[in-house]
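Translate structure to sequence.
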């Protein structure tokens, strides 16, 4: 009763413990961030400020082929190393154990998760650049089935990131069939978002059709100036698949820059064996020369942002070896050092053990608006929950972590009129709830869970920039999570009323 909506409309003088004056504001269902990477940071920062302050009440983790669980073998080693940066100890192996850890700690927003294909692969076969053996395939299927039974919502792939990128179509289809048998979905960071965008969309559609599974295309875009406008073709292909009966949709963040790791500029083979092996290859003179030659070349089918967008458009977001370089482009850094940008990038990767976050300006505004207008598009930040203080305040991350949802409302609804208010809110609430199968969420109705955001349509907007990203948005007055006021008059209350949401429960 205390976590649900009991009446909508005229309240007729009903008694209440708290009344919120929302005169002139909009009361909407709590926003659902359908594509996030908060798997680690939700433990480092359970208040999830950068998300709650956007009006987000449900966070969907486990995207781009990377999830918090299950972790065994190389996946466990990698997870332990990542978590050390946040001061978090790895105390789980299975998804059920991760859920238990979150439940014991508490979180400010609801948490949903997919299972990462890259995590499955690393758990079973490390970072081997080859097809799985029959035994390895069965082991991955078993881990996925166990995780689906624990409450995961589906399978995700990150097909530009090793080891997920090492998989061929049949492997992805067979794993997707497992997720489909539990009512899950398939979410994919496509194998190519540049020159071969159309072929990559076709691959995702083929997986959906062969596995009989709903498909979600992650952060849909056309990267690299030579590909601007190609989203017209990709959306036509998506529409054709939908007309043919496939449940395929997509998500998007409202910016012309993406964010990923600097190591994406390296060929796939350099990543085999994991980060340590990659760094050792960069140190070995003969191999380094070969890698540099490949990075400088333009190869069909390889989405290399160094060539597609240029080193001047690749900005360091985090650099633990030298934080003073954060916010600078690889071109700027190389010029200051008197180094070739390829060599400077290699040196940075070595100094940071292969882990450097970058921001890449690779898209055009027309494409952003075209994708946004497409009815099946939903809103997803593609970011982790952060705060301007503590372990999640490191670096100069993409401002989407703080501003995605207010930016859609302020810039693309109020200022530019790309979307109407109702249409935009639906892309943040009822549409992702329906896609995920989240019952009693995403709509304000009697009996539904009381996840609510109250925002001012006259002022709501993002405030973070690429040079000053750690800034909260304005215009988000109140956020209610499961009936508990979690943001009050623009300030986080400290409440940890979020829940672990499990598929089908």
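Result:
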């Amino acid at each position: 009763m205390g976590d649900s909506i009991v009446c909508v409309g005229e309240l007729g003088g009903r008694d209440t413990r708290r009344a919120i004056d929302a005169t002139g504001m909009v009361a909407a269902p709590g926003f659902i961030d359908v594509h996030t990477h908060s798997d680690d940071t939700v433990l480092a920062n359970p208040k999830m400020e950068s998300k709650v302050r956007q009006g987000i009440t449900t966070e969907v983790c486990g995207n781009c082929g990377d999830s918090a669980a299950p972790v065994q073998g190389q996946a466990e080693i990698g997870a332990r190393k990542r978590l050390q940066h946040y001061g978090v100890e790895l105390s789980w192996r299975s998804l059920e154990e991760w859920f238990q850890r979150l439940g014991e700690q508490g979180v400010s927003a609801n948490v949903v998760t997919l299972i990462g294909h890259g995590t499955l692969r690393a758990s079973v076969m490390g970072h081997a650049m080859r097809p799985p053996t029959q035994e390895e395939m069965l082991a991955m299927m078993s881990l996925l089935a166990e995780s689906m039974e624990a409450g995961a919502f589906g399978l995700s792939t990150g097909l530009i990131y090793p080891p997920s990128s090492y998989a061929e179509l049949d492997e992805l289809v067979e794993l997707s069939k497992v997720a489909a048998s539990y009512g899950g979905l398939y979410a994919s960071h496509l194998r190519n978002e540049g020159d071969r965008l159309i072929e990559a969309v076709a691959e995702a559609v083929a997986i959906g059709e062969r596995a009989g599974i709903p498909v979600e295309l992650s952060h849909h875009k056309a990267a690299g100036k030579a590909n601007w406008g190609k989203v017209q073709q990709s959306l036509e292909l998506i529409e054709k698949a939908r007309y043919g009966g496939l449940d395929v949709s997509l998500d998007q963040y409202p910016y012309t820059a993406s964010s990923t790791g600097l190591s994406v500029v390296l060929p796939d083979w350099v990543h085999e064996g994991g980060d340590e092996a990659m760094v050792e290859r960069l140190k070995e003179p003969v191999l380094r020369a070969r890698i540099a030659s490949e990075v400088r070349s333009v190869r069909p089918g390889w989405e290399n942002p160094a060539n597609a967008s240029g080193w001047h458009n690749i900005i360091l977001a985090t650099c633990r070896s030298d934080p003073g370089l954060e916010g600078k482009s690889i071109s700027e850094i190389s010029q200051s050092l008197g180094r070739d940008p390829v060599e400077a990038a290699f040196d940075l990767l070595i100094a940071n053990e292969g882990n450097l976050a970058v921001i890449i300006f690779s898209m055009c505004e027309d494409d952003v608006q075209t994708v946004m207008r497409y009815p099946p598009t939903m809103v997803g930040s593609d970011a982790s929950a952060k705060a301007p203080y503590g372990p999640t305040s490191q670096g100069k991350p993409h401002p989407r972590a703080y501003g995605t949802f207010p930016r859609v409302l302020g810039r693309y609804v109020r200022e530019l009129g790309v979307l109407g208010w109702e249409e935009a809110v639906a892309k943040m609430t009822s549409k992702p709830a329906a896609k995920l199968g989240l019952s009693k969420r995403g709509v304000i109705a009697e009996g539904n869970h009381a996840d609510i955001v109250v925002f001012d349509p006259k002022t709501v907007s993002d405030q973070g920039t690429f040079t000053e990203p750690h800034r909260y948005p304005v215009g988000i007055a109140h956020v209610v999570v499961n009936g508990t006021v979690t943001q009050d008059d623009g300030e986080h209350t400290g409440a940890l009323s979020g829940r672990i949401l499990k598929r089908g429960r």
